[in-house]
């Protein structure tokens, strides 16, 4: 059985008070006073607590240090009160603030008439040589409170699956097992855990991480875990999110042939009352043939628990909170076999309790979640479809998950990005809305997208959401993956700076093309859109975006220009055919950003939009293999600026988003 940890909550408050005179016979040295208050320890049977408090000035010089006991300076149950000086005169940084440091060491805890043994009875968050330190500005006439918020983990006599008993604080158990204890067989070796099924259908080597806690009768229990990371050094890293809902989560090649998450509430009571014991276990199937022969693979993770939910999945800022850390070497090169054994919490360094100040965790259980319904009224299934979320669903989402969220649908991740004021989409949260890419939207049906609240933002850059995306915020144009220069009859000059692409053609005429390395297939429905500004206007054309069918040497240019507002040339089957112009009054004004879009709504049909308003529609029947897209500059008189460009999927009826009842 694994030992358990009890989480306790003492509180130390330090405040700077009024001034005090200097020493006789020398120039007065400005001093202040510190009032130290340690709250009683929430630990049954505590009769005394001993602390060492040390104050140093900004230069690191000792102001004073003293060992204090709660029987002499408090209530005998861990609480102390003490007033001592601080140095308000020492300011080597010259910033006008004399910053003193206060160090706290926990020397001894006494319970039931005997000292508790650090490392055996409890985990000391502030042992000698490693104090908990806070800083405060010492001023003669200003009170400056400083708070030490410590939570002490005490060993409890509770096994990993033992029955919970009545208590006020949180008990936790943890382990990591690669083998079972030796079974009733002829050998004396532990038996390997064969739990999950590999690709052949046989049960194969499995590593099990166990984590269970209880907040006790009358309290709740909240569990927190980070991702499991298997770091094989130069041979690579595998990351596993221990995210519900429970069940099999799939393979992560080459090392993990399957992994599974198990979460739940144990049906335990104490005195007939729910003991609120929750567990969060992860099984990881390791393909031993994929283990490296030169590198050690180490599995790491972190976990903790609390009676009430931790805002942002993080202990309060400035707190010192107990955390269980897993760090288990799985193999011993060059052998390609698991060599790990059984590891109980605080039985060694592999699964050990430590302390961390305010570090957020990735996941929580029970996880707060919100379900969105994405209705697809189209008669066809939509794949990898970008869906906007705004209004009431967005408000419900950010209200339910103020600290961040992860989106999933059908067990697959749903990447999302936030709308920005200039039309870009990025990982920076705004109130304008978001775009999410849903893997599959069934025809004439509603698909559930689950938002799982996390302790950190989970948005992605726009490139993870849209078919094609470039916010042009870098320092150079990506001519390898995103764009290519197809200019002719002159030279196209271009540069990326200040968050946009600047283009100018060397002559007035046709044409300097900057084309997307992205083709829209004949049967695909898509939107190509961008944000454009012209620095000036002239009689020359400026093509804000182009879409053309790839049909041998024939092509179509569909332009939106400063004078010839909607211009298109039909050369399909009629190379000498004329150009057609539709003047709509939707032109470019110098120095003004406008958003343009071309929608491929049929196999060969195209519509053009200016700031969301449709200005024309044409059908180009000569497309054979698909449509290209790009931007053209036709003038040497002024620069054209492109803020961003993207391609997304399109459907006749835009899917709608509501909150599931």
List the helices and strands and how they pair.
Elements: E1 4-8, E2 11-20, E3 31-38, E4 46-56, E5 62-69, H1 70-73, E6 80-87, E7 99-111, E8 114-115, E9 122-123, E10 132-137, E11 144-150, E12 152-156, E13 170-177, E14 179-180, E15 191-192, E16 194-197, E17 203-214, E18 222-225, E19 228-231, E20 237-240, E21 247-252, E22 256-265, E23 269-270, E24 273-274, E25 277-286, E26 298-306, E27 319-329, E28 342-344, E29 351-356, E30 363-365, E31 369-376, E32 382-389, H2 391-400, E33 405-409, E34 412-413, E35 416-419, E36 425-426, E37 434-441, E38 445-453, E39 468-470, E40 483-485, E41 492-497, E42 500-505, E43 512-516, E44 520-521, E45 526-534, E46 542-549, E47 557-559, E48 566-569, E49 579-582, E50 594-600, E51 605-610, E52 613-619, E53 626-633, E54 640-649, E55 656-659
Parallel strand pairs: 11-27
Antiparallel strand pairs: 1-12, 1-13, 2-3, 2-11, 3-6, 4-5, 4-7, 7-8, 7-10, 9-12, 13-17, 13-28, 14-15, 16-17, 17-25, 18-26, 18-30, 19-20, 19-26, 21-22, 22-25, 23-24, 26-27, 27-29, 31-38, 31-55, 32-37, 33-34, 33-38, 35-36, 35-37, 39-54, 40-43, 41-42, 42-54, 43-53, 44-53, 45-50, 45-54, 46-53, ...
């Amino acid at each position: 059985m694994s030992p358990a940890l009890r989480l306790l909550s003492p509180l130390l408050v330090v405040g700077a008070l009024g001034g005090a005179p200097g020493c006789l016979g020398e120039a007065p040295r400005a001093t202040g006073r510190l009032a130290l208050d340690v709250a009683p320890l929430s630990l049954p049977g505590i009769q005394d607590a001993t602390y060492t408090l040390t104050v140093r000035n900004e230069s690191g010089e000792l102001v004073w240090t003293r060992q204090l006991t709660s029987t002499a300076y408090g209530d005998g149950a861990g609480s102390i009160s003490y007033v001592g000086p601080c140095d308000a005169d020492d300011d080597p940084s010259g910033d006008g603030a004399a910053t003193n440091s206060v160090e706290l060491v926990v020397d001894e805890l006494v319970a039931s008439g005997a000292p508790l043994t650090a490392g055996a009875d409890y985990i000391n968050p502030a042992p000698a040589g490693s104090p908990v330190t806070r800083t405060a500005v010492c001023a003669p006439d200003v009170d400056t409170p400083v708070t030490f918020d410590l939570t002490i983990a005490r060993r409890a006599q509770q096994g990993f699956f033992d029955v919970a008993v009545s208590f006020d604080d949180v008990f936790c158990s943890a382990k990591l097992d690669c083998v079972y204890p030796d079974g009733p067989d002829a050998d004396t070796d532990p038996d390997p855990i064969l739990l999950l099924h590999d690709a052949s259908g046989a049960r194969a080597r499995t590593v099990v991480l166990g984590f269970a806690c209880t907040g006790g009768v009358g309290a709740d229990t909240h569990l927190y875990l980070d991702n499991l990371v298997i770091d094989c050094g130069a041979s690579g890293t595998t990351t596993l999110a221990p995210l519900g809902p429970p069940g099999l989560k799939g393979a992560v090649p080459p090392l993990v042939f399957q992994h599974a998450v198990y979460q739940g509430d144990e049906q335990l009571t104490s005195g007939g009352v729910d003991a609120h014991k929750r567990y969060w276990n992860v099984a990881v199937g390791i393909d031993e043939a994929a283990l490296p022969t030169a590198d050690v693979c180490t599995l790491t993770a972190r976990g903790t628990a609390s009676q009430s939910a931790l805002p942002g999945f993080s202990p309060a800022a400035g707190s010192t909170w107990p955390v269980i850390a897993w760090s288990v070497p799985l193999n011993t090169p060059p052998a390609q076999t698991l060599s790990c054994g059984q590891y109980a919490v605080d039985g060694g360094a592999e699964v050990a309790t430590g302390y961390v100040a305010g570090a957020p965790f990735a996941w929580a259980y029970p996880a707060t979640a919100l379900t969105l319904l994405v209705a697809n009224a189209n008669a066809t299934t939509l794949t990898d479809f970008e869906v906007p979320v705004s209004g009431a669903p967005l408000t419900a989402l950010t209200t339910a998950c103020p600290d961040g969220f992860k989106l999933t649908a059908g067990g697959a991740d749903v990447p999302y990005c936030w709308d920005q004021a200039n039309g870009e989409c990025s990982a920076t949260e705004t109130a304008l809305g978001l775009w999410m890419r849903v893997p599959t939207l069934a025809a004439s049906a509603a698909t559930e997208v689950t938002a799982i609240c996390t302790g950190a933002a989970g948005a992605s850059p726009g490139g993870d959401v849209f078919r094609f995306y470039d916010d042009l915020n870098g320092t150079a144009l990506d001519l390898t993956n995103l764009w290519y220069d197809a200019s002719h009859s002159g030279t196209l000059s271009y540069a990326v700076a200040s968050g946009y692409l600047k283009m100018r053609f060397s002559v007035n005429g046709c044409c300097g093309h900057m084309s997307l390395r992205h083709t829209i297939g004949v049967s695909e429905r898509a939107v190509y859109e961008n944000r454009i500004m012209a620095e000036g206007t002239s009689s020359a054309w400026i093509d804000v975006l182009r879409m053309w069918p790839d049909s041998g040497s024939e092509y179509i240019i569909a332009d939106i220009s400063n004078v010839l507002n909607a211009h298109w040339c039909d050369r399909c089957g009629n190379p000498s055919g004329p150009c057609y112009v539709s003047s709509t009054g939707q032109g470019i004004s110098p120095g003004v950003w406008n958003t343009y879009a071309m929608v491929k709504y049929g196999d060969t049909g195209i519509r053009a939009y200016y700031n969301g308003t449709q200005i024309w529609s044409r059908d180009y029947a000569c497309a054979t293999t698909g449509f290209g897209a790009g931007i053209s500059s036709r003038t040497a008189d002024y620069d054209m600026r492109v803020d961003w460009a993207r391609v997304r999927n399109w459907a006749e009826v835009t899917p709608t988003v509501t909150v599931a009842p």
